[in-house]
Amino acid sequence: MVSAEEINFDGLVGPTHNYAGLSEGNLASARNRDMVARPREAALQGIGKMRRLRALGLSQGVLPPHERPNISWLRSLGFAGADGEVWEKAWKSEPNIARAALAASAMWAANAGAISPSIDCADGKLHASVANLQTMLHRLLEAEQTERTLRRLLPDQQRFAVHPALFPHDALSDEGAANHMRMAANAGAPGVEIFIYGRRASEPRTGFPARQTLEASHAIARRHTLDLGRTVFAKQAAKAIDAGAFHNDVVAVAHEHVLFHHDDAFDDKAALYAEIRAKAQGFEPVFVEVPTARVGLEDAVTSYLFNSQLVRLPGAKSLTLIAPSETRENNRTAEFVREMVAAPNAAIGQVEYVEVRESMRNGGGPACLRLRIVMTPEERAAAAQGFFLTDVLADGLEAWVKKHYREELAPADLGDPALVGETQTALDELTSILPLGADFYPFQRA
Ligand code: SUG
Q1: What is the DSSP letter of 128?
Q2: 155, 264, 162, 250: which is closest to 211 by C-alpha?
Q3: For 130, which of 63, 76, 137, 147 is 20 to 30 Å away at the CA?
Q4: pLDDT, averaged across the chain
Q5: Would residue 248 count as lying in a domain?
Q6: Per the residue annotation, which of 6, 67, 175, 358 is the catalytic one?
Q7: CA-CA distance, 368 to 374, in Å (whole number)?
Q8: Cβ(26) to ligand 1 under 6 A?
Q9: pLDDT in tens, 242-286
Q10: Is 366 in the pocket of ligand 1 (CB under 6 A)?
Q11: 207 touches 245 (CB < 8 A)
């Protein structure tokens, strides 16, 4: 065992946050299509959550948004002229492509990649695999820039192994940490890494897309040099995917020895429990299951109860659930949480509600917004320091958002060529607030 800490790196919401209904199988995205979005509020809510977790005593990091609209990609599709013209033409002639090029979806950092702490890896390095996100066009566009971000954050190749996304094909479909959990006695102890997949490469599916294949999960475990004696591959229940759980983290979340999940989350719950128990080293797993009779899948998906963060606050005897305020507004989930935290010897003994409503309307709760990276003190010191949140950084980011972000983005505003210059100006300035440098974004290199 080593001393280590789990650090949440949240995706900063980008200036083009909007509701385009791009994600089939994500009910919130479909329901809120063409609503008026509030990018400034969305970004401030995200920063507010980061500040809150820091105030609770946890280390917090931040990851930058991507360049949107993605002008270099649109150029590769044959649109030419000045950047603003490229955008205007794309918006008019290929609205579906343009919407993909505009999505601010990199905010959901749980899909940036899968992370294995060095204690779990045979080569002793901390491994990060960028997710290919190939199921949805707008998300597939994230992989290249995400790799750039992770390489900036984790520059020391002696300590960190950053892997590019798996080849983007249906057979290797991968959505990162949203389909990956880890249980351990504590952050620094060897863990059981649990990969949840929706289908095998060869398996045909009707219903909503299953975004993770078993083959992709196997590849990540191999690349990360995981010990198969402490690695689990389990199938997500088809029923959950078809009820709108497009990622495992919509129906399950784990931290330390606790797995909190919905009754219908997994295809074979008994087998999963048994395998985790057999592979757990130095801890007794605790499974906190929410029965369907108390909270049906529909309520789980609309309230995002399981898209909470599970954390241990300094000195706390039990874990704390960082839940979206929508969970408190749903009578069934609110009641369940109240009883759960009040129970004697509760494994999850506290709840804190956070407000991330703008992100939630696109199907992104508190857990979607963060990428967890377990770091030893040496790894933390070797990471780029400017990504760790301080009061000064939070103030700087808030001032930056207030200066550059639009209050509202209505569907009729999205084709505005002025949006391109505005977002590029904002992102250019961001590269000196975060340690990104003058060649981080494609428009800076053009
Ligand atoms: O991939 N929504 C994202 C939400 C991702 C949530 N992440 C986790 N569960 N970890 C998605 O479906 C909607 C964009 C739009 O419709 O405008 C979107 O991409």
Answers
A1: E
A2: 250
A3: 76
A4: 98
A5: yes
A6: 175
A7: 17
A8: yes
A9: 999 999 999 999 999 999 999 999 999 999 999 999 999 999 999
A10: no
A11: no
Residue at 87 is within a domain: no
**Could you identify the atom of ligand 1 that is nearest to the CA of residue 363?**
4
Catalytic annotation on 368? yes
Return the CATH number at 132: 3.75.10.20
Q: Ligand 1 pocket, 29 CB below 6 A? A: yes
CA atoms of 32 and 363, how far apart (whole Å): 10
Q: Taking the model in full, what pTM does it have?
A: 0.98
Report the domain count for the chain: 1
Residue 343 lies in a domain: no
Sign of the C-alpha dihedral computed for residues 404, 408, 411 and 416 taken in this order: negative
Q: Annotated catalytic, 121?
A: no
Q: Quick one: CA dihedral 70, 71, 72, 76, positive or negative?
A: positive
Atom of ligand 1 lying closest to residue 29 CA: 16
Question: pLDDT tens digit string along 309-348?
Answer: 999 999 999 999 999 999 999 999 999 999 999 999 999 9
Task: Answer whether residue 26 is part of any domain.
Answer: yes
Range of the domain at 125: 5-68+103-293+357-414
Q: Tell me the pLDDT tens digit for each residue of 165-181.
A: 999 999 999 999 999 99
| Pocket lining: 19 vs ligand 1, CB cutoff 6 Å | yes
Is the beta carbon of 363 within 6 A of some atom in ligand 1? Answer: yes
Which distant-in-sequence residues (6+ apart) come within 8 Å of 343 by Cβ? none
pLDDT one-digit tens code per residue, 95-137: 999 999 999 999 999 999 999 999 999 999 999 999 999 999 9
Q: Which of 66, 127, 247, 257 is catalytic?
A: 247
Distance from first CA to last CA of the chain, Å, rounded?
47
Q: What is the pLDDT of residues 203-246, one digit of tens each?
A: 988 899 999 999 999 999 999 999 999 999 999 999 999 999 99
